[in-house]
């Protein structure tokens, strides 16, 4: 029983001592909010980056072919190459959306050619 009382007194003293240690504020400034930040590394590396969405549009066309099916395949190849170029050119930025658009094929003489208007949106960091 004595050990329980002694243990209780020690814990009470330790708790009272722990409450005294802390950040002390002026009584005049207690109505304002206080924020304490702890960061690791350089201050510049911890700042939040701002981004801006950039939109663009390009014309995509496949090589002309005699057969319509081959012209469509050429357009599909041109579309995939265009997407690859957009992604490679913006490796550090994020591509939000990319679309080759709707393919429109026209016949010029004996050859068919497929075209479209491709659009993209890219997230680019803003310099401050």
Could you describe the 3D structure shown?
By secondary structure, the protein is an alpha+beta fold. The protein has a domain at 56-125. Helix content is 35%, strand content 29%. It has helices at residues 2-20, 43-46, 68-89, and strands spanning 51-61, 94-99, 104-108, 111-125. Strands 1, 2, 3 and 4 form a four-stranded antiparallel sheet that branches. It is rod-shaped and about 105 Å long. The mean pLDDT is 79.
Distance linking N and C termini: 68 Å
Helix content range: 25-40%
Number of strands: 4
* Rg of Cα set: 33 Å
Provide the succession of SSEs.
HHEHEEE
Number of helices: 3
Q: Strand pairing plus helix content: what structural class? A: alpha+beta
- Molecular shape: rod-shaped
Mean residue pLDDT: 79
Largest sheet: 4 strands, antiparallel
Low-confidence blocks of residues: none
* Percent of residues in beta strands: 25-35%
């Amino acid at each position: 029983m004595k050990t329980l009382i002694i243990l209780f007194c020690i814990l009470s003293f330790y708790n009272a001592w722990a409450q005294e240690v802390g950040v002390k504020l002026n009584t005049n400034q207690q109505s304002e909010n206080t924020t304490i930040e702890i960061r690791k590394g350089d201050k510049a590396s911890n700042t939040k980056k701002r981004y801006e969405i950039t939109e663009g549009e390009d014309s995509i066309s496949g090589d002309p072919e005699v057969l319509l099916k081959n012209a469509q395949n050429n357009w599909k190849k041109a579309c995939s190459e265009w997407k690859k170029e957009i992604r490679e050119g913006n490796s550090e930025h994020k591509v939000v959306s990319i679309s080759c658009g709707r393919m429109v094929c026209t016949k010029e003489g004996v050859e068919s050619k497929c075209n479209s208007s491709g659009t993209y949106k890219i997230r680019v960091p803003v310099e401050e």
